[in-house]
Each structure stands twice: as C-alpha cells, then as structure tokens.
C-alpha cells in the first residue's frame, strides 16, 4: 500500500506493499486453505471475541495502555517491524536506569504466536553519537543530531538514517549517513549517501520537508519501481517547481542522482498548488493528496475537492493517473464515490472530524487496493450501529468505490460508539496493526477502563477473519 495511508510508525511505513511488490509474499495467499496458491476468501470481519496478546513483564503500571510511548517519561517504546517478517515487534527505545538503552542498544520483544516475548533481545545502535541520541524512534527536533528510520535501499526493512549532525558538517547538505539493518541491529558505522546538488547548505537536515519555506521535498516511490526517490516539490531557485513539474532525484542504491528528472504536473491549477506532496488545508480549494487507489503500487494524484467543479468531494474525485513518460497525466479521470452521504463528505482523503462522519482509506481485506471505510455516521438508519457493531466498507471497484457497502463486523462486548474511527484513545484505546504478520490488519485494544489487565499484562487482539 502506498505509505500515505499506511498506519506507519514515525517515519517508517509498516503496511506492506500491494501484491507483486516487495514486502508482501505472493507465494502463500491469505486463507489458502486448499494449498493451491489461491486465496479462498477475503477478510470481512474482526474476530468477535478476541485473543489475549501477552505483554512483556517488569514494566511500570500503564506502560502499554497506548500503542506507543514517545512521552518525556520513561520508558519510551514503539511498535515496528524491524526484522522484515511483516509482524510487529515491541521496541523499547529508552528506559531510565537500564544502561545503554537509547544510546548503544534498543530492547526488542519479538512477536510470538500469542504475544510478545517475555525476554528482550538487544538491538545494536550506531556508535559515536551523544548519550540518548536514540531515545525515540526518530529525532526531527531543532537540535543536532537529526535522524529517522526509512527503507532507502529497497530491502523493505528500515535503515537508520542520520540526516544532520553538527560535528559532520556535510550531513544534511551533501550527504546522509545510512546505517544498514543487519537483522540484529544497525551497523556500527554508516555509509554516506550523496544528496542532490544545487540546494542551499542544510536543506536536507530532515527526511522530508513540507514547510512553508523553500525548498520542499519528500522521499517517495513515485514511479512504483520499489525504490524511494527524492522528490523536489518546490524551490524558489528552480523555475516551475511546484507549478508545472516536480523533480525526481532517482535512488541509485547508495546515492540520489545529483540532478532531477522532470515529473509533469496537471495543468489548470494555481501557481504553487503543488509545492508540497499534498494539500489538505480545508480553508482553500482545491484539496488533493497522493494515493494508490488502483493498487498497482504507483500513486495517483487525487483531487478530492475543487470549488466550482460539480460533485467533486461528494459524488466523485478527480484522479490524475501516472504518465509512463514521467509525471501525472494532464487529463483527470472520475473516481466515483458513494452517494448516500451528505454533500462534501469526501472533500478530504479521510475524515476524523466531529460532524457526524468518520472514515478513512484502508486495505482491510489485504487485496492490495484501498477501500473506503465508514467508521461513524449519523445520517441514516445505520447510524446507531456504525462504530458499535460494524463499519461500512465500500469496496474498491477499480474506477471508484462501490455504492452499496458491505458490513465489517466489530468485536462484541463494548459500549456504543467504542470504535468511531480507525483508532481511539479514550476509555477504550485501540489501534489497527498487523500484529501477527499475516498481511491482514487486526484490531488491537490496548486499554479498557473496566479491565485493568488490559495494558498491564496483555492486549486484546482481534484478528481479521473471513467467513
């Protein structure tokens, strides 16, 4: 799945690519009960009763009542797939009092059949950096060093990429330092990847930049070849950038090309409309984003709202497919939307507002294509049950979303409107994750105010199933 809608973790996408792309094995389809290499059915619900998912012992009370902890208090931890097995590990990045955690090592609790391992394995970190540099799973602060996790060498496991460090002045200007993922830790010494030329010193001190200041750029597999390229979306010093074209600096397995290839943008938009890789302002038209709607591994440019264009954001989106010659096609195609919802419901590529509708784009059934999933709605006879006993899933039909939804059944035993969005953090905290590595998205309850053990010694794991 294209990373924008993946439930990733701090700079590294956790959802695998569509079938046929690196990251999701095609040799063993989900629910291939006959062994014929054919998927027997597609997931259509979560397990009603759930399973206990054990948590590591020995941590302070409440350590795991959310699916991550990046607070200023110890311990800090995240869920991520460090080893490339598609399942999530629990990675403790800092724990005050434990020597070296956050400096020379992380603690990795591997995934097992019924939870996380009871004993951690050390994950080695690069040497030569200040104490607690790696306290979190990223650092994008104003202080040096800056770093993040990204799969830049096409092996679908995260590398640790240092983008800026004051004692090494070339980092962030002419090079990044990439510490390879060796399966048991990151390499102790890194390899410098050269950066595009012709930009001001310090331009690339983060993994991406979509700020209000020039230049802007992002790491993105814009052409679907499995490599993350560096895409320059705006720079005052380059004519037309962000207006009529982007520049794609190709990933050359050890560097990004010094000069960029032109990536053409649709015409007819105001100057500067494409100065970042999305526009979700809501205060001005148009709104657009990048998404792989067709499931081919290549993102389309999706205009979800444009004032003055009839039906855009209500009954259709305007989709600009990729052009084989490089860029997006000049003429859009209509992507049909369900018509049973209020006008303007789909003006953004997701909605978590308080206007009675919550929805998102997810590949719940692991078929490689995004579905439109309604988590909450207050405008029809379905309203009391949506977010309580079911979500409404509008299947991806290849040219739009199905008019009529299928019911995606939610777990039993929860109060009304417990699941009104793709994640929650109130009395019941939950998140969508592929905990068990089967390529299906599971619902994981990390806290229940009426069950103290949830978040203390176990989570409740509701795997995706099919009938």
Quick overview:
It contains no helices and 29 strands. It has 467 residues and is mostly beta strands.
Overview of the molecule:
By secondary structure, this protein is an all-beta fold. Helix content is 0%, strand content 29%. The chain has no helices and 29 strands. Strands 2-28-27-26-25 form a five-stranded antiparallel beta sheet, with no helix packed on it. Strands 3-4-5-8 form a four-stranded antiparallel beta sheet, with no helix packed on it. A four-stranded antiparallel beta sheet has the order 9-10-11-12, with no helix packed on it. Strand 17 (287-291) and strand 18 form a beta hairpin. The radius of gyration is 22 Å and the shape is flat.
User: What is the typical, i.e. mean, pLDDT?
Assistant: 87
Distance between the termini: 24 Å
Structural class: mainly beta
Low-confidence stretches: 1-29
Topology readout:
Layout: E1 45-46, E2 51-54, E3 76-80, E4 89-94, E5 105-109, E6 111-112, E7 115-116, E8 121-124, E9 146-150, E10 159-164, E11 175-179, E12 191-194, E13 216-220, E14 229-234, E15 245-249, E16 261-264, E17 287-291, E18 300-305, E19 316-320, E20 333-336, E21 357-362, E22 371-377, E23 390-394, E24 406-409, E25 424-425, E26 428-433, E27 442-448, E28 458-462, E29 464-465
Antiparallel strand pairs: 1-29, 2-28, 3-4, 4-5, 5-8, 6-7, 9-10, 10-11, 11-12, 13-14, 14-15, 15-16, 17-18, 18-19, 19-20, 21-22, 22-23, 23-24, 25-26, 26-27, 27-28
